[in-house]
């Protein structure tokens, strides 16, 4: 990626984030403090890595990638979780998808350690779920209509010990 492309991505992300004013009260995003850290999932088909950092009282940043068994990158993305006003947004910028532009998902529901983000206008996924199983394990899930069928893809992960 060139510097110009990097700047354009940054500008797109900042535009999405600035559409709502961030308040001084960040009660909702505190619910995600458990997410900070290095998460990994392994299967016979791939290896998933997701890393989250807390940037400030209203913003977390992260990145994720999936590797094939022979260590080729299948997918990579940058993520921002932020609270704007009374809303939480998960902004995903997946490489080689959506014309390399960020897509925002809004927290639409949460209960019992399950957090649901949705964007019904996106092609796939339209829903992203983070399910905190325990302090050191989570199940991330993406779902939506894909080629006319409901598709659900799960990513079980455990937190790496620091």
From TrEMBL:
InterPro entries: DUF6265
Top-rank taxon, per record: Bacteria
Sequence segments annotated as region (Disordered): 1-22
DUF6265 domain residues: 33-143
Record's protein name: DUF6265 domain-containing protein
Source species of the chain: Flavobacterium suaedae
């Amino acid at each position: 990626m060139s510097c110009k492309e990097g700047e354009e991505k940054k500008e797109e992300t900042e535009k999405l984030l600035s559409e709502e004013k961030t308040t001084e009260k960040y009660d909702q995003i505190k619910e995600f403090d458990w997410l900070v850290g290095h998460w990994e999932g392994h299967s016979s088909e791939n290896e998933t890595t997701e890393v989250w950092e807390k940037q400030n009282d209203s913003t977390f940043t992260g990145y994720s990638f999936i590797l094939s068994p022979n260590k080729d990158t299948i997918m990579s993305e940058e993520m921002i979780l932020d609270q704007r006003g009374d809303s939480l947004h998960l902004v995903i910028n997946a490489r080689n998808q959506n014309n390399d532009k960020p897509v925002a998902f809004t927290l639409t529901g949460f209960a019992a350690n399950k957090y649901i983000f949705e964007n019904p206008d996106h092609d796939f996924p339209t829903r992203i779920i983070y399910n905190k199983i325990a302090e050191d394990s989570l199940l991330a899930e993406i779902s939506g209509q894909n080629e006319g069928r409901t598709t659900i893809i799960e990513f079980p992960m455990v937190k790496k010990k620091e």
